[in-house]
Structures are given as structure tokens and as C-alpha cells.
Write the C-alpha cells for this entry.
Amino acid sequence: MSETNVAASGASVEPSQPRPTAEPAARRGPGADAAPLIHARKLTKRFGEFTAVDGVDFDVQPGEAFGFLGPNGAGKTSTMRMIGCTSPISDGELSVLDMNPRRDGPRIRARLGVVPQHDTLDNELTVRENLLIYGRYFGLPREECARRADELLDFVQLSDRGKDLVEPLSGGMKRRLTIARSLINEPDLMLLDEPTTGLDPQARHLLWDRLYRLKQRGVTLVLTTHYMDEAEQLCDRLVVMDKAKIVAEGSPRQLIERYSTKEVAEFRFAPGIQETLDGQFDGLAERIERLPDRVLLYADDGEDVVASARSRGLHPETVLVRRSTLEDVFLRLTGRSLIE
Amino acid sequence: MSAIAGARDRRTTAPLPPLGSSWSTVRRVVEHRALQYRRTFRASIFGSFGIPVLFLTAMGFGLGGYVDRSQDAVLHGLTYLQFLAPGLLAATVMQTGSFEASFPILGGLQWNKVFHAMFATPIQPSDIVFGNVIWIALRLALVGAVFAFVIVLFGASRSALVVLAVPCAVLTGLAFATPMMAFTATQRTPDRFATLFRFGVTPLFLFSGTFFPIESLPSFLQPVAWLSPLWHGVDLCRQLMLGTVGDTPLLAVIHALVLITITVIGVAVAMRTVEARLVKG
């Protein structure tokens, strides 16, 4: 129940972001909000003594883009693999597309589109053959595979590379091909595990654009990321994971409002200076984080903080006033940066 | 037809996948392997002809010339070429089977992770095992058939039952390939393959009655040959190609049963190790 509310209000407090044409099912009207696509309660994954996922609860509604944000080792990939029915759950409850992964793995996987963290393309085949053979895994007839392959190559802007082998493609192209491949069965639910990790900024933006188009078409996206900008760009709603647990949940804007301030002033001092400034920031801002290389001052008006700091005689080498991001939320919740 | 499909929910264009392994899912794995093979088909066929021609010429005629002059009673009046050919057939198919279940399988599990990609679809670990075993069997049948063809061209077969020697050679190859596949699924690097080939496959290749009758081995070593799966395959192929299978039919049946048993156990273990590996990620 609470998840549905979060999804609905999350959509209404984000005027700055363009709205998808396909609204989350919860907003489509009576009857449509019945069943979440993914329903997890006390979901747990253990590997021997090690607990990778420790009793997490979440629901994913049809049509929404749902994110798992967290540092490496937080349990994101283990959660995704349980949803993808390639890793059995250790404890708790999980239903995907109203089915039980323990029993109905192949039937669930038939309706998923999976983009794994590491490429699993067949380097011995051409770009187009990779799509054709993947369509065959789903039992699609050859002509249908061919028709969809051409459409999808066009969608991910790889039409001119169809006859080339996969090996020489750039990292970004391989990711795009993997996304095209995951769409060959017209999935009801897409699982993307760190879709843009390791890509250059240009390739990431191109990929985000494609994922955004899918979202607009009403495809439900579930993604993991340790990039806060990615989560902010793509996710309607997300959970922050740390050390196998969910530590916060909401829309990006809600999380920032709840756990941070509107703005942040970042002060950098010449080496050695910061250590001499104990106590001198007190009262300047709502919250102060002292990182090894800079001081973060959280307030609703960053310029104001800068002015008061200067009047106290503080002279940082550089000053940056910016809006709060999910990085700040993560820092607040865990006391650590997302990417160390 | 398309009107019907259009009227239905788009999801129903793909059939509901079965929950267990079935030919409809297994054959998709075979199809993938065949698509990969198309790229190396020519080189592979060339090799399939080259190996038997080279071996039979060098060892059959070259070495055989010396052997035949010695009039060794152990060969029971056969030329060395006739003795050697069935052994080489079984041993070559065995080597191909061992290889096909090592590097290409490790590739799918570890390097390009194609089997993991399959596992993200309705394809199941058991489909991946069965599909690969069937693919390897097809590969071995091709290698064996080409080899047998060359043997017939060399005039080294004495019986029309040479036709049956090909499936028996394939069975020999599978008795090596399936345990190898089970082992491969537990490995993350190919480091141990070299050891296995050097201390396992090659000694068997040399001492399983391929190049000389096991009667030539010291008497205490002769029972050891029974433990070699390859010897069962070599002797079975030899009985068929020399037309002596009628003399000891029970022995032929035992040979076949040993090879079938090893293959079945190999598949059963591979199902476990491959699934465990895919689930581990």
C-alpha cells in the first residue's frame, strides 16, 4: 500500500522532469493498480555464511522505472539475479509477473528482457546473428526474429553494423546491442544491471536516451546503478541499498527533500588548511560533512552560506554552490561516498 | 494467420516455454552451436580429411611396411594398416570429443558467457547440457564419417560393418566428452586442461590398443587396459571393421555398455556442475 502511495506522489512532485506518456499503472485508474510486477518481502540471499541481500521489501508497479542505487557489493546484482530467476532465493517471498521464480523460472524469463552487468554477446557471430539466435531462444519463428532484429538494430542505431562481427564494436555499441537483444521478446519487464558502467559520457547519454524512449512506450524498467545522475535521469522511484539492506525509498526528488537540503556549498582549501579549521563551520549550515578533500555545507541557500563563511574570515581556494543530488542523500544515509 | 496473431495479445507470439527440458528448447542450443560452426566449417572439414590421410600414410604405410615384414603373429595375418585404422578412428574421435568439451564449453561459461545469456531466457541448464552433447555428437559423427571414408579409400577396412564403426566411435568420443564437460563446468581457467590432456588423454591415446595390441603390454598391465574407456571403443571399432564381431558378440556388447554407462554418468554429473555454475553467475 505504502509503495503505491510513494509511486503516485513521487510522480507529482517532479515538475522539472518531463513526464512519460505511459503513467505508472497506479495512476491509470481503478483496476489497473491491482498487481505489482515484482513483489518482494523479506527477500534474502545468502552465500554460505555471507548474506548478500538481507530481508528487503519492495514492489515494482507496471510502467514505472525503478532503481536500486548503492555502492559495489551492496546486494544490487544479487537482487537482480533473483528477480531474473537465475539465482534461487534463500528466504522470504518473491513473485515476478505474478509467478513464483522457484517453480516458473522459464515462464518468467520468457517475459523478461535482461541486460546483464557484463556483456554476454557471442563474439563469434555478427551483430545481427546475435539478435536472431537470441530470438530463437524464446521460440520465435525465424521470420519474426529477422523482422524484430532489423527494427531493433534501427532503434539502437546499429543498422549499418548488422553484418559486422561483435568483437570490434566499442563498449557503448556492445551495450546498445545487448539492450536490443533484451528487447527481442518484447518483454513486459526489463532488468538492467549497471547499464552504463564503464562507458564514456557520450555513450551513456545515447543509452539513457534509448532507455528513456522505452520508458515512454510504457516498458517497465528495473535498473541498478551506482551513478546518482543515472538514477536521477531514469528512475521514477528508487531504493538506496547499503550492506545488503534497503536504507531509503522514494522518488529522487523526495529522497533529496527528505535527506538533504536544496543546495550544497562545497569548499576546497589549500592542503593542510582544513585540518586547522575545527569548529569554524559551526552554525553556518543545516548540516556539515567534512570529507578528506573538501567540506560540504548543506543549506537551502548556498550563496548565503558562502557569504557568511567569507564574513567569518574563511577563504577556501575554490567554492562551488550546487543543487543537492542523490550522492548527498547517500552520504547522509551511510556516511560514505557512492564511488570510493 | 497473421490476422489471428494480430488479434491475440502480442505476448502470445512466443510459445509458452515448457518447464522441463524438451526437444523444442534443446534444439535452440544446437542451432546456436551450428551457427557458430558455420564460420569455421571449411577449415574444420579440411582438418577432418587431413588428419586421417596423414596418419594412415605415415603410420599405416610407412611404419606398417616395417611391421608387416616382421610377420608378427599377434596381428593374426592382418596388415598393420588394417590393424591400425579402427584404433585411429576411435582415438581421433575421442580426442576431438575431449577437446570439444573443454575449450568451447569453458568459452560459453567463462569467456563470452554465451551460456549465461541463454540462461536469462527460457533455456535451462539441462537444455544447455543436452544441446551441447548433441552438438558434440554431430561434430564427432562428421569427423568419424570422414575418417571412415578415408579408411575405405585406403582399402583398410575388411567389412561393410565399418558403417557401424562410426556410431561406435562417436559413442567413444561421448564417453570422454561428457565427463570432460562436467569437469570443465567446475573450472574458471583452462590451466588444468593441459595437465588433463598430457597425463590423461595422451597416455590413453597411446596405450589403449590403438597402435599395438594390448597383448604386447606386460601381462600385469593388460587388465589396466580394461579400465581405459578408449580401449573398449578401439576394440569395438576393430571388431566391426575386421568383421570379427560375430566371434565374440558378448565382448562387443560389454564394450558398448561400458561406453554408454560412462556417457550417461557424464551427462548426469554435467547437469549438476553446469547448473551450479550458471546459478553461481
